[in-house]
């Protein structure tokens, strides 16, 4: 993404956030900022700290998954590089519609670090496929364990959850086709190349075709390796499932920390799982507004007067603090890259 697009989408996210918070607060007669601060001060610090731990584990597990796949194909990187790839994926996914900016941002950094384009492409495709599979499976488990939760939601919430399930299932099919039917992916790449050439964006067509053929051969080899090692997919699935659980854990810890009944942990877990599933259905950056609406509707039967306070704190930790940390990681990484480039006279390769 160029600088103008970054600024545009960050601005859109800020505006959406302000509008969302405004309507959440306006819709609650009992909410006041003074009461919110007072309520937070009374919260159990151990559980709130645990919520922050869950949020950081969420970032780390993304790093472990991407790093594991890169290492499987022979590109072993330090965990700090995996954290940078994770931060890029989560940050740009949060500020772009339908999370379209996350994968390309990670890909740029991975290729910059010397990971082959074919490996980068397949690793990120596998990761996002398993990521989506874990959301669908976890959502299905939540519905089976607590069907009364979705049945008790408003019609719009039910529609969003069903839509989320349908959209994510469709995405899984598309991703699987791209991963295991490499000809389709490469045909798409060739088609895009022709369009770019037609609009004079790509000039040396023969050179690009040659590079695409080479990339296709490397990609096919990577796919064959994955097919021969089913344990790799299982391990990535476990990492992604644990990542989803850590994400849900933020809401659970905040709920208990702010006086909620710990005995209802499964209800909280299932409700937040459905919130995540439903929020993934709408192409809004970070699901801003949609996620908040689903949370307020789903948790209204579990939480009384303090619903808005718990929602603001839970969403604040799991989303806003998360993207601030990811953005900070990317800023530091970029600053270090510039420093090393200047120190070495222009060669900033890590």
Protein architecture, described:
With 350 residues, the chain is an all-alpha fold. Helix content is 80%, strand content 0%. It has helices at residues 3-26, 33-41, 45-72, 79-95, 102-112, 117-145, 147-151, 155-180, 182-198, 205-227, 230-257, 265-279, 290-299, 307-343. The longest helix has 37 residues, at 307-343. The protein starts with a helix and ends in a 7-residue tail after the last helix. The mean pLDDT is 85.
Task: Write a brief structural summary.
With 350 residues, this protein is mostly helical. Helices cover 80% and strands 0% of the residues. It is built from 14 helices and no strands.
List keywords for this structure.
single chain, mainly alpha
Please write out the topology:
Layout: H1 3-26, H2 33-41, H3 45-72, H4 79-95, H5 102-112, H6 117-145, H7 147-151, H8 155-180, H9 182-198, H10 205-227, H11 230-257, H12 265-279, H13 290-299, H14 307-343
Helix pairs in contact: 3-4, 3-6, 3-11, 3-14, 4-5, 4-14, 5-6, 6-8, 6-10, 6-11, 6-12, 8-9, 8-12, 9-10, 11-12, 11-14, 12-13, 13-14
């Amino acid at each position: 993404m160029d600088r103008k697009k970054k600024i545009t989408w960050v601005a859109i996210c800020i505006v959406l956030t302000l509008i969302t918070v405004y309507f959440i607060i306006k819709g609650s007669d009992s909410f006041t900022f003074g009461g919110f601060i007072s309520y937070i001060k009374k919260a159990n610090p151990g559980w709130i700290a645990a919520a922050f731990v869950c949020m950081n584990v969420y970032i780390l597990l993304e790093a472990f998954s991407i790093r594991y796949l890169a290492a499987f194909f022979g590109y072993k990187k330090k965990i700090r590089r995996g954290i940078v790839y994770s931060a890029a994926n989560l940050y740009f996914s949060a500020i772009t519609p339908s999370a379209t900016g996350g994968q390309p941002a990670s890909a740029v950094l991975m290729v910059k670090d010397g990971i082959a384009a074919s490996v980068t492409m397949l690793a990120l495709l596998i990761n996002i496929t398993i990521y989506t599979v874990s959301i669908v499976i976890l959502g299905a488990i939540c519905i089976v364990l607590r069907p009364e939760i979705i049945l008790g939601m408003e019609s719009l919430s039910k529609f969003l959850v069903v839509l989320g399930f349908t959209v994510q299932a469709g995405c899984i099919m598309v991703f699987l086709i791209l991963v295991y039917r490499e000809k389709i992916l490469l045909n798409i790449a060739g088609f895009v190349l022709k369009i770019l050439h037609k609009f004079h964006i790509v000039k040396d067509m023969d050179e690009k075709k040659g590079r695409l053929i080479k990339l296709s051969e490397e990609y096919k080899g990577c796919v064959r390796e994955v097919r021969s090692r089913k344990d790799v997919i299982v391990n990535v699935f476990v990492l992604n499932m644990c990542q989803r659980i850590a994400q849900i854990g933020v809401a659970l810890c905040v709920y208990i920390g702010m006086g909620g009944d710990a005995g209802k942990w499964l209800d909280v877990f299932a409700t937040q799982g459905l919130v995540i599933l439903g929020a993934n259905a709408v192409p809004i950056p970070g699901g801003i507004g949609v996620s908040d609406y689903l949370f307020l509707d789903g948790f209204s039967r579990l939480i009384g007067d303090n619903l808005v306070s718990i929602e603001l704190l839970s969403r604040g930790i799991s989303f806003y603090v998360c993207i601030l940390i990811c953005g900070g990681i990317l800023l530091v990484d970029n600053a270090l890259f510039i420093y090393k480039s200047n120190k070495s006279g222009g060669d900033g390769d890590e």
